[in-house]
What we know:
Layout: H1 15-29, E1 32-33, E2 40-46, E3 49-52, E4 58-60, H2 69-104
Antiparallel strand pairs: 1-2, 2-3, 3-4
Amino acid sequence: MKGDSLANPSIRYGASIRKLSDAVKKQKISKYKCEVCGRLEVRRISTSIWKCSHCNTVYAGGAYTFTTPSGENARRIIEGIAAKALQSKQAEQVQQTQQVQQVQE
C-alpha cells in the first residue's frame, strides 16, 4: 500500500484485495484507443459509457474496462458474419459477370 497513489484507505484486511482494487481502478482511469479516429482518447464518463475526447464518439462498454470478454466475442462473431456475407456477394457478382460474358460470346 505504501507509495500507491490509487490506494484506498477503506480497503482493509489483505494484500490481494488491495491489488484487485488497484487493478480495477487503473483500468477505469486509463485511456483506450478510439475505433473511429485511432487516438488514445477514449475515457470513462460513467458506468459503461465511454467517450472519445477527440471525435466525441460515445461507446457502450464494460463498467470498468472499455471492452468486456463477451463483447469481444460478439464483435468477432459479427465481423465473421459480415466477412462471409461480403464473400458470398462477391462470388455472386463474379458468377453474374461470367454469365454475361458467356451470353455475349
